[in-house]
Amino acid sequence: MLISGHTCASIRHLSTTPDSPLLTNPPSDSVADAPTPPKPRRPSPYRLLPPHTFLAHFAPLHVAGWRLDLLPSIVQLSEGRSGNNGDGAELRREVQEGMADLQDRRLVRMWEFGEGKDGWRGLMRFAQTVGQIVEEEDHHPTITISPASDYRPTSTSLSTPNNTRGYVLEISTHTHTPMPPLPSHSDGLAQSSANNATKMRPGVTGKDLRLAERLEEAFGKARAGVEI
User: Fold this and answer.
1) Which of 80, 127, 166, 188 is the most exposed place for a label (fewest CB within 10 A)?
2) Rounded Cα gap, residues 133 and 216, in angstroms
């Protein structure tokens, strides 16, 4: 189960009474009735993070099971090339060494739950908490809930479930329209990032890190009463 975020035409009536004046000059009304074009989408107030800032916050999340990965659309483009995401370690090394920034990246994590009714109830309780946190953070991650036996990780950096008779919840988060990172001589961003700084490309921001931290904290509090 995947949970992933009109135009009305006005009708004018002419009076049919004999003494009603005829409308002979309606251009101004026609302009007023014209639909207002939609406003351009504003970029997220969250900026892409420089590598050293990201790694400082991501280290404990990585230990807990979160992974930094390429967006699936980018993986499809890079299949068969040297830029394949592999197990995620090479990508993380490139970020750490300043060879890549966080554009076209995402954070992804998989949680395992026990089998039977107890495992399912535990998963549903955690899913409800996830929904509350996502709403509070005003974010829109991709959420996958599946029996472990049917689960297919969306990232090769994620391992397969240990118990195939249980259940799995996977979350993938990134910011669709972030602002480019602030320029700095010490952050080691790749030159390609500077050239593309004006483009709104998806990537990992502080908003994604905050969501991951809150979800991990919630899971830590819930696991005492959940079969995992």
Assistant:
1) 80
2) 11
Which residue has 């990032």 as its token pair?
Answer: 193
Instruction: Tell me the two tokens of residue 128.
Output: 């409800």
Cα distance between residue 7 and residue 33, in whole Å: 12
Quick: pLDDT tens for 154-213: 998 998 999 999 999 999 999 998 877 776 544 444 444 444 445 668 999 999 999 999
H helix or E strand, kind and range, residue 192: helix 191-195
Q: Are 107 and 98 in contact (CB under 8 A)?
A: no
Domains of the chain as residue ranges with CATH: 51-225 (3.30.1360.20)
Residues 6-63: tens digit of each pLDDT = 433 333 343 444 444 444 555 555 555 667 766 655 555 688 888 888 999 999 999 9
What are the DSSP calls for 78-131, one per residue? HTTSTT--TTSHHHHHHHHTTS--SBTEEEEEEEEE-SHHHHHHHHHHHHHHHH
N- to C-terminal Cα separation, the chain: 20
Query: Does the predicted TM-score (pTM) go above 0.85?
Result: no
Helices and strands (DSSP H and E) totals, the chain: 7, 5
CA dist., res. 33 & res. 13, Å (int): 13
| pLDDT bucket at 89, cuts 50 / 70 / 90 | low
d(CA 110, CA 124): 15
Tokens read off for 45: 């107030």
Radius of gyration of the chain from Cα atoms? 24
